[in-house]
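During the reporting period the student researcher (J.K.) took over the structure-prediction task from the postdoctoral fellow and processed the backlog of single-chain submissions. One of the processed entries is reproduced below for the supervisory committee.
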Amino acid sequence: MNRIVLVLVLLFAGCAGMEQQPASVERMYVIPCGESVASDLSRWTTSADAGKSVLLSDHCYLIRHANGLMLWDSGYADRFAASMPDGFRAPGTPFTVFVRKPLVQSLQEIGVAPADIQHFALSHHHADHSASLFAGSTLYMQATGHEAIFGPEPQKYGVASANFERLRGARTVKLNGDHDVFGDGSVIIKSTPGHTPGHQSLFVRLPKSAPVLLSGDMVHLRVNWELKRAPSFNFNPEQSVRSMNAMQAFLKDTGARLWINHDSEQSKTIPKSPAHIE
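J.K. obtained the following structure tokens:
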């Protein structure tokens, strides 16, 4: 009997040793994907800032996970880098936009081609986040965002429709709230509606430093985060504030840092690709 027990113990121990450990994020690249100068800061803040200019950063984020590559946001269209190196004024807006380097080139510098990216998600559908290069990837999108983009009235939501034509046939995971992309808690899409109906943010648990929450346009500037203030042009400003409050509690629970995509002052402190963050 003792010999049988010993054999069983050794057998189970061997099986336990063969169990795979949960996969995790290996590194993340923060890729500059354009920047814009806006002529009127009060658009985001208050009338006291009328006529003041503001520089807005814009990034894409490549996450290398043990089970594949994920791209979060894709910035302005690459064609602007080649055709308008001195910037362009977006019609009907206060923005002058600069794209210094195409995203495809930035990816090539770290050994990645668009076809290598298995997982692709956008914070939302505006033109500074949604260049369409990744129709071969699995697309993760809130159902409400999908309806805004591909439904009968995309113009109602300010959708840059041309950016999404190639994504119509993409493999799509329609979400109704938060989603654990790799199933191990390391990359979690967080539903943060308000700026647009299906806006989402991304939590990333890094291997050697504190986790981060990538804001998208849940909030545009540090001062708005501190004051829990949403600009009036958001689809639903009140919902935006609720999302910010929910994410403040989430940051407290997880110890994550908030990286505000458009806050150029914070952006200066974050290493950019081809450097990576662990």
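The committee noted the following: Residues 4-21 have pLDDT under 50 and may be disordered.
J.K. will present the remaining backlog at the next meeting.
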